[in-house]
C-alpha cells in the first residue's frame, strides 16, 4: 500500500469543507497520527482562516 506521489492543488476553505462533508477527503487514514494540537491552537487556525491570514500548505 504505497502512498501516491505528491501533487499540488489549491482549494478554498469552503471546497475543503465540502469535500470533508462528502467524504471525498479521508481525514483518518491508517497512517495519520493522533491529534497533537490543543483546542486553543485549533481555534487559532480557524480564526486565522476567517481573518484571511496566510496559512501554510496542508498536506494530504
Give the SSE string.
HH
Q: Give the helix proportion (percent range).
A: 25-40%
Structural class: mainly alpha
Largest sheet features: none
Low-confidence stretches: none
Rounded to an integer in angstroms, the radius of gyration calculated over CA atoms is 13 Å
Give the total of beta strands. Answer: 0
Mean pLDDT: 88
Strand residues, percent: under 5%
**How far is it from the N-terminal to the C-terminal residue, by CA?**
16 Å
Shape descriptor: globular
Enumerate how many helices there are, as a single number: 2
List keywords for this structure.
35% helix; 0% strand
Quick synopsis:
The chain is mostly helical and 60 residues long. The protein has 2 helices and no strands. The chain has a domain of 33 residues.
Describe this structure in words.
The chain has 60 residues and is mainly alpha-helical. It has a domain at 11-26 and 36-52. 35% of the residues lie in helices and 0% in strands. It is built from 2 helices and no strands. The protein has helices at 13-21, 39-50. The chain starts with 12 loop residues before the first helix and ends in a 10-residue tail after the last helix. The model has no long low-confidence stretch (mean pLDDT 88). Residues 15-60 form the GmrSD restriction endonucleases N-terminal domain. This is GmrSD restriction endonucleases N-terminal domain-containing protein.
List the helices and strands and how they pair.
Layout: H1 13-21, H2 39-50
Amino acid at each position: 500500500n504505497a502512498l501516491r506521489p505528491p501533487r499540488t492543488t489549491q482549494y478554498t476553505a469552503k471546497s475543503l469543507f465540502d469535500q470533508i462533508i462528502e467524504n471525498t477527503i479521508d481525514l483518518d487514514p491508517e497512517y495519520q497520527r493522533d491529534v497533537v494540537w490543543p483546542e486553543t491552537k485549533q481555534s487559532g487556525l480557524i480564526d486565522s482562516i476567517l481573518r484571511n491570514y496566510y496559512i501554510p500548505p496542508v498536506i494530504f
